[in-house]
């Protein structure tokens, strides 16, 4: 990037004059040429959510979306459904499907969530059976996956209005946030299991910012917005970079998920933290970590970065991440496995580096499948490994953040919701921050 910066600038001006096809970059206010691969990866990601769903209108599981494909065909995750609902609105806006068929799918899916999907006090089980929306064997009730489902419901409620909005508001209103709060420490639990009770706490920074905003804005069961300031904010830097508040494993998705819906640009909380800027610094650090680790793992490099939880040669691995991590910088794991969604989910924070990574990934034929880029790969081992599946949440963060970079679409519609704005205000996320 640094070597060719002046040449790229000249080329950009020429391309703008010749093509006339530009779009606003919401993170910088600059203009950029529309990259064809953004359309290709976005459309392919949308196809996963549209095609890998229960499309039988007579089924109690209608509209549920698979956790992954082609593996585990009977399993849906409510997080995948949340990303999927949002993707359907994107698809309708872009004309990939008609507005009529998109709205029908959305309303049917919301009815499934409201009437059939297994839940406790409004909180969904993490995994549901595709066929009937009953909880999958061994699944826990998950507050974060419920929040992602709510984000999707709110988005389509605002976009389609009418019955979709009514259903979305009903699903949101029945969530009893207080039930998931531990009064002993004033923190949210992470999960609940039948016959076992609650476990874990959201006691360290991660992807959970959305929880406090949604809970504070609840029309029926709001919680004290001061909870937002209770989790540990451990701040340090990577190398010579700027200090930032980091997550436990340093997985890049933790810096992305809440930003996929909540537009936090130009906002700071009561302590002065700019969470948008924090995620940009975390993305820069993750990329530099990948560059530094390329000496040991040839998968990584300046065009292959974004360590995040993903499939791995030995099964799903949630510890993939970059330094800094934990309290003593010893909780992240790097073994040469990389998920394309990591870099692509940060496109709104650092578009040039993410688009360069996208081009790099599409230059690896084995990494491209029916739904665009596969979940992960590792060329640091022999033979090289390529994930056989795509995973809904990874296709979701890819699609949503690309769309936010291109048009700001998700932010525009999600932020129209009065309860969303109320939650941000209650927590103290002030506007006008520079």
Automatic annotation (TrEMBL):
PROSITE patterns: PROKAR_LIPOPROTEIN
Gene3D superfamilies: 1.50.10.140
Pfam families, alphabetized: Glycoamylase (PF10091)
Organism of derivation: Cohnella luojiensis
InterPro entries: Glycoamylase-like_cons_dom
Protein name: Glycoamylase-like domain-containing protein
Extent of the signal sequence: 1-24
Keyword vocabulary terms for this entry: Signal
Domain Glycoamylase-like: from-to ranges: 201-417
């Amino acid at each position: 990037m640094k070597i060719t910066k002046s040449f790229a600038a000249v080329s950009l001006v020429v391309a703008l004059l010749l093509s006339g096809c530009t779009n606003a970059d919401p993170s910088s206010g600059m203009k950029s040429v529309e990259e064809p691969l953004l359309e290709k990866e976005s459309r392919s990601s949308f196809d996963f959510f549209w095609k890998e769903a229960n499309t039988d209108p007579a089924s109690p599981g209608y509209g549920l979306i698979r956790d992954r494909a082609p593996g585990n065909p009977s399993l849906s995750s409510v997080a995948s459904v949340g990303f999927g609902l949002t993707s359907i609105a994107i698809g309708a806006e872009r004309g990939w499907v008609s507005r009529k068929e998109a709205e029908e799918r959305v309303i049917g899916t919301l009815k499934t969530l409201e009437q059939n999907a297994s839940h406790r006090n409004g909180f969904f089980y993490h995994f549901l059976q595709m066929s009937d929306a009953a909880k999958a064997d061994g699944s826990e009730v998950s507050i974060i996956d419920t929040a992602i489902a709510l984000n999707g419901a709110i988005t389509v409620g605002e976009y389609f209005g009418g019955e979709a909005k009514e259903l979305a508001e009903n699903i949101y209103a029945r969530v009893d946030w207080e039930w998931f709060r531990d009064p002993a420490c004033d923190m949210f639990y992470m999960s609940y299991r039948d016959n076992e009770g609650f476990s874990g706490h959201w006691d360290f920074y991660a992807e959970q910012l959305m929880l406090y905003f949604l809970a504070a804005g609840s029309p029926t069961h709001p919680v004290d917005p001061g909870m937002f300031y209770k989790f540990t904010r451990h701040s340090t830097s990577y190398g010579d970079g700027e200090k930032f508040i980091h997550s436990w494993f340093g997985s890049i998705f933790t810096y992305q998920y809440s930003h996929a819906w909540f537009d936090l640009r130009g906002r700071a909380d009561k302590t002065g933290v700019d969470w948008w800027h924090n995620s940009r610094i975390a993305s820069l650090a993750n990329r530099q970590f990948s560059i530094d680790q390329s000496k040991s793992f040839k998968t990584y490099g300046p065009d292959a970065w974004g360590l995040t939880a993903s499939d791995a040669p030995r099964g799903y691995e949630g510890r993939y991440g970059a330094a800094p991590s934990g309290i003593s910088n010893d909780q992240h794991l790097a073994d040469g496995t990389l998920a394309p969604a990591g870099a692509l989910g940060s496109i709104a924070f650092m578009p040039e580096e993410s688009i360069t990574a996208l081009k790099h990934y599409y230059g690896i034929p084995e990494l491209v499948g029916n739904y665009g880029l596969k979940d992960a790969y590792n060329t640091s081992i022999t033979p090289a490994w390529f994930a056989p599946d795509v995973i809904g949440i990874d296709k979701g963060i890819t699609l949503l953040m690309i769309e936010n970079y291109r048009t700001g679409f998700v932010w525009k519609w999600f932020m129209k919701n009065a309860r969303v704005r109320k939650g941000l205000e209650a927590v103290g996320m002030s506007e006008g921050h520079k």
